[in-house]
């Protein structure tokens, strides 16, 4: 079965548990819903390894596709 998901790229700025140095983290999620809710933003932070209070600097819609289409060309 070719399940289609809405893929999003999330980028976060984070100081990582009180560290002085700022770091950038990111994650890509395939969502059933096209809406990006706070629940999904928190999920993306966890996948990215960001702290819960990280600042989201970017949320980009990549399109509706299957997982195979998203991963095409990578192994």
Q: Which features does this protein show?
A:
75 residues; alpha+beta; three-stranded antiparallel beta sheet
Describe this structure in words.
Strand 1 and strand 2 (23-31) form a beta hairpin. Helix content is 21%, strand content 40%. By secondary structure, it is of the alpha+beta class. The relative contact order is 0.33. The chain is built from 2 helices and 3 strands.
What proportion of the residues is helical, as a percent range?
10-25%
Order of helices and strands: EEHEH
Shape category: elongated
Q: Got a strand count?
A: 3
pLDDT < 50 stretches: none
Which strands sit side by side, in order, in the main sheet? 2-1-3
Structural class: alpha+beta
**Portion in strands:** 35-45%
Q: Give the overall pLDDT as a whole number.
A: 91
Over all CA atoms, what is the radius of gyration?
A: 14 Å
So how many helices?
A: 2
Structure in a nutshell:
By secondary structure, this protein is an alpha+beta fold. It has helices at residues 38-48, 67-71, and strands at residues 5-14, 23-31, 55-65.
